[in-house]
Amino acid sequence: MSEMKNIPMVALKEMTMLPGMLVNFDVSRQKSIKAIEAAMRDEQKIFIATQKDPAKEQPAMADLYEYGLVAEIKQIVKLQKNVVRVLVIGQVRARLVSFELEEPYVLAKVSVESKSEKEQVEDISLEAMLREIKDMALGYCKLNDKIGKSVSDRIEQIDELEDMIYHVANSLPFRNRTKLQLLATKELDKQAQLLMDELEKEIDIFHIRQDLQIKVKERIDKNQREYVLKEQLKLIREELGEEDEDSEIMEFQRQVESLEASEEVKEKLKKEIKHLNKLSPTSSESAVTRGYIETLLALPWDKTSEDNNDLDNAAKILAEDHYGLEKVKERILEFLAVRNLTAKGDSPILCLVGPPGTGKTSIARSVAKALNKKYERISLGGVHDEAEIRGHRKTYVGAMPGRIVNALKNAGVKNPLLLLDEIDKVSRDYKGDTFSALLEVCDSEQNCKFRDHYVELPVDLSQVLFIATANSLETIPRPLLDRMEIIELSSYLETEKLHIAKDHLLEKQIQKHGLKKKQLTITDAAMSRIIRYYTKEAGVRGCERQIAKVCRKAAKEIYEDEKKTIKITKTNLEEYLGKEKYRDHLKNDSDEVGVVRGLAWTSVGGVTLEVEVNVMPGKGQLKLTGQLGDVMKESAYAALSYVRSQSKQYKIEKDFFAEHDIHIHIPEGAVPKDGPSAGITMTTALLSAVTGIKVRANLSMTGEVTLRGRVLPIGGLKEKLLAAKNAKIDTVCVPKKNENDVLQVPDEVTDGMNIIYVSEMSQVLKAALIKE
Known about the structure:
Layout: E1 2-12, E2 22-27, H1 30-41, E3 45-50, E4 67-78, E5 84-102, E6 105-113, H2 123-143, H3 149-157, H4 161-171, H5 176-184, H6 188-240, H7 248-258, H8 263-278, H9 284-298, H10 311-321, H11 326-342, E7 349-353, H12 360-371, E8 375-379, H13 387-390, H14 403-411, E9 417-421, E10 428-429, E11 432-433, H15 434-442, E12 450-451, E13 458-459, E14 465-470, H16 478-482, E15 485-488, H17 494-512, E16 520-522, H18 524-533, H19 541-560, E17 566-568, H20 573-577, E18 592-593, E19 595-602, E20 605-617, E21 622-625, H21 630-645, H22 656-659, E22 660-665, H23 679-691, E23 694-695, E24 699-701, E25 704-705, E26 711-712, H24 717-726, E27 731-735, H25 739-743, H26 747-750, E28 754-758, H27 761-768
Parallel strand pairs: 1-3, 7-14, 7-15, 8-9, 9-14, 16-17, 19-24, 21-22, 24-27, 27-28
Antiparallel strand pairs: 1-6, 2-5, 3-4, 4-5, 5-6, 10-11, 12-13, 18-23, 19-20, 20-22, 25-26
Helix pairs in contact: 2-3, 2-4, 2-6, 4-6, 7-8, 8-9, 10-11, 10-12, 17-18, 17-19, 21-23
Active site: 677, 720
InterPro entries: AAA+_ATPase, ATPase_AAA_core, Lon_bac, Lon_bac/euk-typ, Lon_lid, Lon_proteolytic, Lon_Prtase, Lon_prtase_N
Catalytic activity: Hydrolysis of proteins in presence of ATP
């Protein structure tokens, strides 16, 4: 028979209780705490259910298992943070019929079964089951040392099957699922059978675990035994003077015998191999020594490749790969000629310096191709650790050779071409001075015995052809700079860019985008517009990106619209590249007072720079704007001093500078400007503003001025003259000491241009000012 009762309910998340089980558990949910308090006020009885999903904070009827337990509360202890610890003892199983929220706790309606319902099996069967469970449980207790003697003693004393089932299930480590199945099973014989099945499973699992532990121990013992036998066998072979023909040691020794290296290197390798032979194969030192031996064997100690010394072939390859760059090509051919005559010759350290995109890296590849040399690129940009160049000492964990030795190892020969790319972007930190490490690499007197910390043997770099690249020489220390031969790559002229784009870039991008040569053509006029109005750079990298953009759009049209050919002209160029990005800075339309056009060098080539001067009543202050650097500020003060010294000649009033403020401004104020070439420009603009004399609009100038009016030479003349030509300026004042530099500028730049050589400021003023 069963009895219906209404009892306060508590839902446990990850625990199932059985009758006879005494257990502590903590309660933190307010509804559960209130349910326990309500039970204490009544009969101290509470219904304990188990949640299906422990994550649910407010479980519904469907979230609870059907069968639970009616338990009696024995003790309550209040802990911190609103937590209550409850001691209960399980009494009788019950089925959850329904529950309702009786504020502030849950009241469950349960069906409590009487004990008489389970006594439906014959006594003899009950006795057999009791004995079988007792024997299995005692057997499991003997196997598992973690179960205390008190559990087995209690099992010996129990004579009731139901008590035995619940005691064994409570005492032995069964899963919650098994306990829930026992609660849900009404018949005593089925409960007993379920428990026996689970006991048999646990005993089998325990035996399997024991077997696995034995096998693992046997395997470890076997490995240890094999290691001892190998050591004994090694000792016996050493006594007999024999070696295994197929062993790693013998393979290393064979490689040493066939290695093209000096006796010093071979002796070092033999010593390391002998040391490796004595080490345990499983030791960490063995792995370090093995890696060191493999690195030494992989290095090309005396292995060289045959160079192609044909000057005509080299000249042909350089001409095919690069347009212009005559100085660079000439220097490479000179180097080849010297090598051919001397049959040896020290390899020079060439340093190609120029703006981005001018072809420095591709020149190195072409040189390697012309000389038939192995080519390796070492990127030095951002390298700040000296060990990156010299390597780490092999005693450190994770030690490895430096980049120079690694490049030699990859090349496979001792006479490759190594490109030291972006040498000006090397940095220093607390780990060492990387520039100082490069001194030994770049010094032909020292690099014949280059010392890498990992290799620990002198490495010959004298036959390596080093080529370095840099955007600027300013960050390279003087000692390192002295060890390299500097070859400057200046900005490309517009005509040079046109030839490069037509002969190299267009064909390269057409192939890269899956097009055929006949499918896309770009006229010279369109290409010139791309160069002039869509890019602003010294090299051709931006131009190549614009050509790639045209190729992409052309490929899309050919694929989607099935066009056979596309021709890009200056009229339809905007359809592919959009509106023009840059405009020409043309000369002023008319002569003006206080406005002079100067010339400046930038990383993207030459530009024209306007200097504006205004004079206004004031207190004799000089104001400078336009983001001028320190050098240009000093030029402005020197210009003012010179103009004041010429007051008498130009009939400037004595109190003029005390009663007027002067403002010098260079437009495009967001762009920083500095450099020693704006002195004569500022002086001319200042004198024009003070005297009211106009300056010629068709004239520009470059040069530095002293306090006494002498004109000093400047650099970057080719780029500056090109900027003047693009601005349609036909007269340029250039320092007299730069006359030789002008002679080296291509004729296509200077044609139609009147170049006035000046050595004194008076000559500049004579050419620039318009006297009425």
